[in-house]
């Protein structure tokens, strides 16, 4: 990422995304994040082994993430809103599960929509609280958002 006037421009892929300034990290949505209601607070590597919150534009489907001719970004759904609509972040698309290694060492699953699903922990409350369903895939449960399938 490169700094651009207080925000950041994700230039990992041609036609990257401009991201707003810092926010209260935790993949949170709502007025308390500092992002407003048109963005979600997502974590980014700070380059020093930590994570900072960056406001990122919301998406609800992969077409919201198209940049030019590239299909290299997908809408990575992180929760459902009050109406059951998907709220996600435009993230680089995955092709295999190997592309879904998270910063904390968690291994995710690349789903059919080319975005990474996170494993459910314990009783799955971390998933169900965000409107997802813990679903078993080959012995590991992942948080799946049916509205985004």
What's the SSE pattern? Answer: EEEEEEEEEEHEE
- For the record, the count of structural domains works out to 1
Intertermini distance: 30 Å
Q: Tally the beta strands.
A: 12
Count of individual helical segments: 1
Secondary structure class reads mainly beta
Measured on Cα atoms, how large is the radius of gyration? 15 Å
Assembly type of the shown chains? single chain
Amount of helix: under 10%
The major pleated sheet works out as: 5 strands, antiparallel
Strand content: 35-45%
Mean pLDDT: 74
Please provide a brief summary of the model.
With 149 residues, the protein is mostly beta strands.
How does this model look, in words?
- This protein has 149 residues and is an all-beta fold.
- The protein has one domain.
- Helix content is 3%, strand content 38%.
- The longest helix is centred in the C-terminal third of the chain and has 4 residues, at 125-128.
- It is globular and about 40 Å long.
- 30% of the residues are buried.
- Mean pLDDT is 74; it is low at 1-6.
Notable features of this structure?
three-stranded antiparallel β-sheet; disordered N terminus; 149 residues; mainly beta; 1 helix; globular
Layout of helices and strands, plus pairs?
Elements: E1 2-4, E2 7-10, E3 17-19, E4 22-23, E5 39-45, E6 51-59, E7 73-80, E8 86-92, E9 109-110, E10 116-117, H1 125-128, E11 133-137, E12 140-144
Antiparallel strand pairs: 1-2, 2-3, 4-6, 5-6, 6-8, 7-8, 9-10, 11-12
């Amino acid at each position: 990422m490169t700094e651009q006037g207080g925000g950041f421009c994700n230039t990992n892929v041609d036609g990257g995304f401009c991201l707003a300034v810092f926010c209260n990290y935790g993949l949170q949505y709502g007025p308390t994040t500092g992002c407003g209601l048109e963005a979600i607070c997502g974590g980014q590597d700070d380059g020093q082994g930590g994570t900072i919150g960056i406001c990122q534009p919301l998406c609800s489907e992969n077409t919201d993430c198209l940049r030019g001719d590239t299909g290299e970004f997908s809408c990575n759904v992180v929760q459902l809103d009050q109406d059951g609509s998907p709220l996600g972040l435009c993230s680089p698309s995955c092709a295999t599960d190997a592309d879904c290694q998270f910063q904390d060492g968690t291994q995710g699953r690349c789903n059919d929509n080319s975005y990474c699903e996170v494993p459910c922990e314990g009783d799955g409350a971390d998933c169900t609280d965000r409107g997802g369903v813990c679903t078993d895939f080959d012995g590991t449960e992942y948080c799946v958002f049916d509205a985004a399938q």
